[in-house]
Design a protein that fits this description.
By secondary structure, this protein is an alpha+beta fold. It is built from three helices and six strands; from the N terminus they run βαβαββββα.
Length: about 90
Amino acid sequence: MQLFAASTDDLETNTRFAAELGIGYPILADPDKKGAEAMGVPTHLGYPNRWTLYAGKDGKLLAIEKKVDPRAHGEQVTKKLAELGIARKTK
């Protein structure tokens, strides 16, 4: 399984944010919003909505979570991965 995030902030801002939070996965920079537009993510006041997209190993889209709650998103992701039959990563 590969986990990453994408943001319309620039690379420097995303790198600093990830370091401040100790995030152990990359945050891709999409400052021109072309990636968000290509994925059909609608914008509100010029900022893309927070969506989580789940893709299989073959790159095909498996699911989209459109109601992301930042406070409980880890639990949302864990639940969705289980629903999709994607095994938890073991240490």
